[in-house]
Design a protein that fits this description.
This protein has a domain of 68 residues. It contains 15 helices and no strands. The longest helix is centred in the first third of the chain and has 49 residues. The N and C termini lie far apart (67 Å). It is flat. By secondary structure, it is an all-alpha fold. One of its GO terms (biological process) is phosphatidylinositol phosphate biosynthetic process.
Length: 278
C-alpha cells in the first residue's frame, strides 16, 4: 500500500513540479537572451574590426542548455522526493490517530470481545497498532507541532505509553511555550520536577498560563513537586480565580498544604478566602 501511495504521489505531484520548473527555465532563458543581446556587437562595431579575425562558429548555448536541463532534472527529482516523504509522514500520522478512534469505537461496540459482534477488518487495525514506531514518533511529533501545537500537546493522551512522544512534547513546549499558553493541559510539559529543581528560565511563562483545576494547583504545594516561588504564585492565582464555594471542597488538601508551605503562600490564601466566605 505504501509503495502504491508513493507512485500515486509521484504521478500527481510531478505535473506541478514540471510547471514550476518550466516557468523557472523560461525566466532563465529570457534573462540569458536579454543579456546576450545587450552584449552582442552592433553593425558599426563589426565594420571597425579588421578583416583577419577568427570566428567561433560553435554555438555557446549548447553546453549551457545541457547543463540547465540536467540541473532541472535533478531539482525535479529532489523536490519530488521531499514532496512524497512529507505526505507519507502526514498519512501515517492520520492513520495512527484514526486507528486509535476506531479502537475506541470497537471497544464501545464489543466490550466483552464476543465473536458474533466482531467487525470485519478488526484484525488489520490491531496489526497496524502493534507496529513498533517508537523511533519515528519523534519526527511525527514535530510534524504534529508544525501542523498545530495543540495537536502535539494532546498526542500523549491519544497515543498512550509512548515516552518518546512525551519527551519530544516537553522539549517543544519548553522551546516555544507561547503557542500553547492558552491550553491548561500543556502546563504539565513545561513544569516538571527537573525544571523546578534547575530553576529553568522558561518557568516565567507559568505566571500567565491558563488556569488549571484546583486539585492540580494544590499539587504544587505537595511533595509531588519541589517548592518554587513561581509555581506557588501561580497556584495561589489559580485558587483565587475560583469561587469560594468551589474551593470549599478542598479544605483538607489546603490544611495538608500548610505543612509543606515554607513560603507562607497557602496561609495568606486561606486568610484572603476567609474574608470572602465564612
Amino acid at each position: 500500500v505504501m509503495h502504491s501511495d508513493k507512485k500515486y504521489l509521484m504521478m500527481t505531484g510531478e505535473g506541478d513540479f514540471e510547471m514550476l520548473i518550466e516557468h523557472q527555465t523560461n525566466l532563465t532563458a529570457m534573462d540569458s537572451s536579454s543579456t546576450t543581446n545587450s552584449l552582442a556587437p552592433s553593425s558599426k562595431d563589426l565594420m571597425k574590426q579588421p578583416a583577419a579575425v577568427w570566428i567561433n562558429t560553435v554555438p555557446l548555448s549548447t553546453s549551457s542548455n545541457a547543463l540547465s536541463k540536467r540541473s532541472n532534472r535533478s531539482k525535479k527529482i529532489m523536490h519530488g522526493n521531499v514532496f512524497v516523504k512529507d505526505y507519507i509522514k502526514k498519512r501515517n500520522l492520520i492513520l495512527e490517530l484514526l486507528a486509535v478512534e476506531i479502537e475506541m469505537l470497537l471497544v464501545w461496540h464489543n466490550p466483552g470481545g464476543r465473536t458474533e459482534l466482531q467487525v470485519p477488518g478488526e484484525a488489520s487495525i490491531a496489526e497496524w497498532r502493534a507496529k513498533a514506531m517508537n523511533e519515528r514518533w519523534r519526527d511525527y511529533t514535530r510534524l504534529a507541532w508544525d501542523i498545530s501545537p495543540v495537536l502535539a500537546v494532546f498526542l500523549p493522551v491519544r497515543l498512550k505509553n509512548s515516552d518518546t512522544i512525551i519527551r519530544e512534547v516537553c522539549r517543544l513546549v519548553r522551546l516555544k511555550p507561547i503557542p500553547v499558553m492558552h491550553v491548561s493541559e500543556a502546563l504539565q510539559y513545561l513544569v516538571t520536577t527537573d525544571s523546578l529543581l534547575n530553576d529553568a528560565p522558561e518557568l516565567v511563562y507559568m505566571l500567565t498560563w491558563a488556569r488549571i483545576s484546583p486539585i492540580h494547583a494544590l499539587a504544587y504545594f505537595s511533595r509531588q513537586f519541589p517548592h518554587h516561588p513561581i509555581s506557588a504564585q501561580y497556584a495561589v492565582r489559580v485558587l483565587g480565580s475560583y469561587p469560594a464555594d468551589a474551593v470549599l471542597f478542598y479544605i483538607p488538601q489546603l490544611v495538608q498544604a500548610v505543612r509543606h508551605d515554607s513560603m507562607g503562600y497557602v496561609i495568606e490564601f486561606i486568610k484572603a478566602i476567609a474574608k470572602r466566605s465564612q
